[in-house]
Amino acid sequence: MGEAVASPTILICDDExxxxxxxxxxxxxxxxxAEAADVAEAIELAHEVRPDLVLLDVMMPGGTGLSVLEHLxxxxxxxxxxxxxxxxxxxxxxxxxxYDAGANGFLKKPFDPDELESLVxxxxxxxx
Amino acid sequence: xLHATDRRESATDRRRTAAPSLxxxxxxxxxxxxxxxxxxxxxxxxxxxxxxLVAAAFAVLLxxxxxxxxxxxxxxxxxxxxxxxxxxxxxVNQLELNLEGYLASGSGRFLASWRQAQRxxxxxxxxxxxxxxxxxxxxxxxxxxxxxxxxxxxxxxxxLIAIYKVSPxxxxxxxxxxxxxxxxxxxxxxxxxxxxxxxxxxxxxEASARHDATRAVSVGVVALVLAAMLLLAFGFFLxxxxxxxxxxxxxGASRVAAGDLSTRLPEQGAAExxxxxxxxxxxxxxxxxxxRELEAQNEQLRQSERLKSxxxxxxxHELRTPLSGILGYSSLLLKRNxxxxxxxxxxxxxxxxxxxxxxxxxxxxxxxxxxxxxIELKQELFDLxxxxxxxxxxxxxxxxxxRFVVGIRESxxxxxxxxxxxxxxxxxxxxxxxxxxxxxxxxxxxGAVVDGVVRVQVxxxxxxIPREHQARIFTKFxxxxxxxxxxxxxxxxxxxxxxxxxxxxxxxxxxxxxxxxSQFWFELPVAT
Lengths: 128, 528
Fold this sequence. Notes:
Chain A is an alpha/beta fold. Chain A contains five helices and seven strands. Chain A has helices at residues 17-27, 39-49, 65-74, 92-101, 113-127, and strands spanning 9-13, 32-36, 53-57, 59-60, 63-64, 83-87, 105-108. In chain A, helix 2 packs parallel to helix 3. Chain A is globular, with a radius of gyration of 13 Å. The two termini of chain A are 15 Å apart. The model of chain A has no long low-confidence stretch (mean pLDDT 89). Chain B is an alpha+beta fold. In chain B, 72% of the residues lie in helices and 9% in strands. In chain B, the strands form two sheets. A five-stranded mixed β-sheet of chain B has the order 2-4-5-7-6. In chain B, strands 1-3 form a two-stranded antiparallel ribbon. In chain B, a hairpin with a 3-residue loop joins strand 6 (507-513) and strand 7. The model of chain B is unreliable at 1-18 (pLDDT under 50). At the A-B interface, helix 1, strand 4 and strand 5 of A face helix 9 and helix 10 of B.
């Protein structure tokens, strides 16, 4: 079972390069990362790399992160992929909208790197 | 209302309806004429007319009754005449009988009775003459009767009594007796004629009285019926003129009370009712206007409430993004160990995001500053063309998907103003052009002097602005559907840009085709 040690792939979708880097650094070296800066790129990469988990910003060029989420949930191959929505819109309604669209987790910006790390590892563990 | 409909009718319709509408038009004219009288005048005129008519009816009735009374009194007079005539006849009989008795017996008792009858004669004659004074024929007959009886007494009876006292035989001669009989029979004929005349008169009077009585009753009945009908007509007139319009107003008021503020009443009728309906309509109009204003204010309030909540959300979002970098990296640096290069790089990010935060706060404050006129503009002469080139080059480097084409048609393109603030406006237009054409494309900048002003235009091939939002895009914090479409921003750039351009004595505007792109421009006075 040599495949088992292959690091999980995380798709990071955020138009801010510094925040993509922050997420990467927060999660550490145990993962493989793919990065998208807009909605179209996010959908394209999701199909391409079949990530184990998606970190999704809400405000992105070309549409909202929630539209990406809805797309993933409508694709048989991707509908089980855990998605964590990370948003600077933090009102209850934004929260609810994310869960309604099928999010597995929700983090407010600014987020705590440790919190992100434990949420991601929990979601991946529960999936396995 | 009716007139408005009439006006809308076609010429053919009017021709077709012209003939039968003659009576209608006449009625309309009469109604119009009636309407020109105030209600008070109408009621007074109506009451006065009614009183005159009722009074006339009763006058006719009174006339008929006075006729009846006249007939009745004529009848009574005839009866009196008959009585008086019969009394006269009785006196004449007394005269005749007592004369005969005296001549036959010579008794003083007869003579005394005769003398008494002679004394009764003049009053009896006077009574008859008095009663028939107004009737020509009986008057003539009475006069003749008076002459005959006087002649009988003076020319015959008194003479015969005198003769009897001298020679009773002579007085009893047949010739004397014959003369007496002749005279008495003349008197009797005349008496009988007078009685017949009076009987005839009495009969005529009675017939006339009966006729007059029937007429009086008929006139009375007709007058009463007429008065009743007039009262009914007046009641109907009052109902039509007052009650119906009042009921109409009441129904209108109920509709208004029920919330139908578009209720309007036809402004017609007597002056007071016209005023009432006019006032009613004015009230309804004012209510409707007030309600509409309130609704508009409500909508404005709701909109400003939405805008406020949008503002909070935008500010929060814009601040949270750099804060995420600052807190995230600093927390990592505190908790984990990094090599020196990595640590330095993260500190740089923290610094950069801190600056970004500061400039965001500056941007928010800018709006307040610009709006309250506290912005201080430098007045320097500079080449706007060079600025257009430089800024496009800097931004172009950060937007690899876009191709910048800058065309300056005049060099130098000189203006007087605040270089940094104008650069801010231009940079805002450029970043908007980049942001709202997410698929990349050509961004064209055009700088020229047009009609005595410096005009700068930035055109993109992006998503454009939905028509329903075009009127509001210079409103601060207004972001149309940008948030839903994933376009970050504060909704302040254009609002601030407009304030800056206008503070320079210029104008800013745009044209946009949804789905095809936008052209934003601003104009500044040429440097003199």
